[in-house]
Amino acid sequence: MKKTQSLEEPRINVFDSQLLFLLMRANLTVTNAFAAKLNHSGLTDSSWRVLATLSEIDGIIVTHLAEVTMLKQPTLTKLLDRMVKLGYVVRKGNDKDRRKIEIHLTAKGRAISTELLKLSQSFEQEMMAKEEVSALKEQLQNVIDLRWSSRDMLSRRLK
């Protein structure tokens, strides 16, 4: 006798037990939910990452901003063009190295950044209890730290 598939989304056990798959699904789920919250502001998740980063590291150079925000440099350049037109950021040359371009928040950018950081914090509170969010952040940071320390050890071995 043939099994009929239910109308519910099928569960694939191998994916439920794979850390990489779970992290990707969690990222997609949370990012999409937050993007829906951002819709009212007309900004994207990428814009939010840039504004949030600049609220802490104003004057960061484009190369580092791309790395921190996890955006490819050509994508970031186009995004920055739009953000300049919106009046959120300005580009300034670096006094010591003219090849390096620094990105700075404008007053308008700082104001929207402050609003979006509050939105992000309230989103976290809606998602999970404060203690759960803190514990999850700590676990994820441990995973990130392991990856970076492994990369650093490997690069030292290669030198």
Structure description:
This protein is mainly α and 159 residues long. The chain has two domains: 13-127, Orthogonal Bundle (Arc Repressor Mutant, subunit A); 129-159. Helices cover 68% and strands 8% of the residues. It contains seven helices and three strands. The protein has helices spanning 13-16, 19-38, 45-56, 62-69, 73-86, 107-127, 130-158, and strands at 60-61, 89-93, 101-105. It has a three-stranded antiparallel beta sheet with strand order 1-3-2. A hairpin with a 7-residue loop joins strand 2 and strand 3. Helix 3 crosses helix 6 (107-127). The longest helix is centred in the C-terminal third of the chain and has 29 residues, at 130-158. The radius of gyration is 20 Å and the shape is globular. It starts with 12 loop residues before the first helix and ends with a helix. Residues 153-159 have low confidence and may be disordered.
Short description:
The protein has 159 residues and is mainly alpha-helical. The protein is built from 7 helices and 3 strands.
Give the SSE map.
Elements: H1 13-16, H2 19-38, H3 45-56, E1 60-61, H4 62-69, H5 73-86, E2 89-93, E3 101-105, H6 107-127, H7 130-158
Antiparallel strand pairs: 1-3, 2-3
Percent of residues in helices comes to 55-70%
Structural class: mainly alpha
The number of distinct structural domains comes to 2
CA radius of gyration:
20 Å
Task: Say which CATH homologous superfamily of the largest domain is assigned.
Answer: Winged helix-like DNA-binding domain superfamily/Winged helix DNA-binding domain
Biggest beta-sheet profile? 3 strands, antiparallel
Shape category: globular
Terminal Cα span: 63 Å
Q: What is the annotated CATH architecture of the largest domain? A: Orthogonal Bundle
Spatial strand sequence of the major β-sheet: 1-3-2
**Strand tally:** 3
- The percent range for strand residues is 5-15%
Q: In DSSP terms, counting alpha (H) and pi (I) runs of 4 or more, how many helices?
A: 7
Q: What is the CATH fold-level name of the largest domain?
A: Arc Repressor Mutant, subunit A
CATH class identity of the largest domain: Mainly Alpha
The overall average pLDDT, rounded, is 85
User: Unreliable runs, pLDDT <50, ≥5 residues?
Assistant: 153-159
